[in-house]
Structures are given as structure tokens and as C-alpha cells.
Amino acid sequence: MRNDLLISKFGQKLWLSPNRCIFWEDKSILILSDLHIGKSAHFRKSGIAVPGLIFKEDMNRLASILDHYKPDTLLVTGDFFHSIANEEHESFKEWRGNYKGLRCCMVRGNHEVLSDQAYAELGIEVLGTDYTIGPFYFIHEKPDIVPADSFSFSGHMHPGIRLSGIGKQSISLHCFYFTANQCILPAFSRFTGKYLVQPLAGDEVFAIVEDSQCSRLVLV
Question: 140, exposed or middle or buried, with CB in 10 Å at 0-12, 13-18, 19+?
Fold first, then answer.
């Protein structure tokens, strides 16, 4: 897609998207984290006025990405869903019907509370709490140790970066956060906050700049 950025890890082609996901070209896998489906409906059930449009926008954005890359697999590194079943779960089931040929799978995150069978009924394969394919390791929370011959992808943190100008102005942006052997993905859902990261020497941060016209990645 426009403004996607190609990088390489372990000889594998990865397209970073300012739409908060990664397309692993060699395996035809779309990787993302923290959709938090059901979150806005969960808040509304608790009496907090949150518009349902957030969920629709997230799913429309995901549909656009799937239609562009046409991956064989959608792999979510946790917090695919936010809560017990609610109206957004049923809406997702209808949405899922448009992609019957797509393998849809996830590693469990801290918000996954349903049974594997319940997710199977939504068309989702549960891979457990972690999953390895080739040189890549997928887990929800950032692992403390990653083997030298591996590279991990995780979410959970909802990483962000603060950029400051020459004056006192500043802005915080969602980002992809890379260390030597790890990538922490931005939360896919727009209904999420940020945890501001403090990069160390050698780390790479790709900030997501969004405006009314387009989104783009900026290496900080």
C-alpha cells in the first residue's frame, strides 16, 4: 500500500504499514496486534458513551489491508478480543464470512477470556500463548530473552514515541519499536492509548504520522 516500508530480518521481507500492521511477504502472513474487538461495546455496557463507529473503522481498515495484500494468513499477537462476548463479536463473525479462504489465527493475550471453542466458532484458530514459524517467534507480551537465532514479534505495550520541537511543543505518536531481536507492534485498534518508549542506542523506532490525507512512517 502507499507509504508502506520494506525492511528485512533474517533474510525475510517485511512490509511495515502505517496502518499498524506488518505483511510478511515470504510466508504471505499479515501480522498485527491488539484489535481489542468488543472494547467499545464493553464500555457502553458499563455506561460509558463510546461510539460504535470505532469498531467499524478498525474493521474497514483491516478489510482494505487484506484486499490489498491478499495474505494466506492473518496472525494476531494477542488481544484480538477485549472481553466476554458482546454485539461486536457477532459483527466480527459476519465480517469474517467475507474472508472464508483466509486462515485467521492468534496467540492468546491478557484480554482473551473465551474458550478455544468459542474462538473456533468465530473462525479463529488459537495457537496457544506463543508460536514459532521459521526464525520468528510470536507472543503477546515482550519476552525477556530471545534466542540469538530468533526474532520476536509482540504487542501489549501499545508503543508510542514523543517527538519534541525546538520550542516546548511536542507530540506523541504510535510506533513500531525495534530492538536487535524484537519488534513491538503498535496497537491496531484506534481505541487504545500509548506507552511511551525510551529507545536505547541501536534501537529503531518507526513513528506513524497520520493526517486527513494519508498515514506514513517516519524513522525517528
Answer: buried
